[in-house]
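Re-run with default settings, no changes from the original entry. Doing this only to confirm the output is reproducible before filing.
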Amino acid sequence: MSEQRIALVTGANKGIGYEIAAGLGALGWRVGVGARDQQRRDTAVEKLRAGGADAFGVALDVSDDASVAAAAELIADRAGGLDVLVNNAAITGGMPQTPATVDPATVRGVVETNVIGVIRVTNAMLPLLRASAAPRIVNMSSSVGSLTLQTTPGVDMGPVPAVYLASKTFLNAVTVQYAKELGDTSILINCGCPGFTATDLNSFQGVRTPHQGAAIAIRLATLPDDGPTGGFFDDAGPVAW
């Protein structure tokens, strides 16, 4: 491993993912910009480099085994290792979306990206992360996935797509299980909620900027060795499960 910290951010060509990459780049890290679309990926890398970040593109479709395996090989070859993985890539599946009307194909697509994709990428990157002196995994979740908040009287989660909401609950549960499995390692893994951020994921209806939304991921990516693992956090602190 080189002395320079290495990070991979999935879905980093725009929005919160791009700002996470920019924030880590500003810390002097080398950042892999994971994205499916080559043109958008290249544009993001060029912009990050113009801003002084040490960024490189990583062709990455989190729903494809071969793509993820190739990404792991590329990072090993180009960066020599990996210190931080930020699983940011996600889809909503579209609106409106209720359990009684949603197409099962939509459910499969959302879970494939938002949950299975996280598992696929995490498992492919674990050998590299295990070799890091201070490995961190950040899974970008959302407070809409909180069962506590969903069932608290008077709490309005808004018009959130039902399957997207459930996928974040699923992701939270998987993160806890990873934390248990990796408990005897130095890997810290946590979920982060960016808040109601204006991105194309919600048709730019959020009240926070992508820069603000990226802050929690950057904080969790830079946790000290005695930091928490298996937790769920936003800018204000722990989020109820």
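Helices lie at 15-26, 38-50, 65-78, 104-130, 147-150, 162-181, 210-221. The chain has a mean pLDDT of 94.
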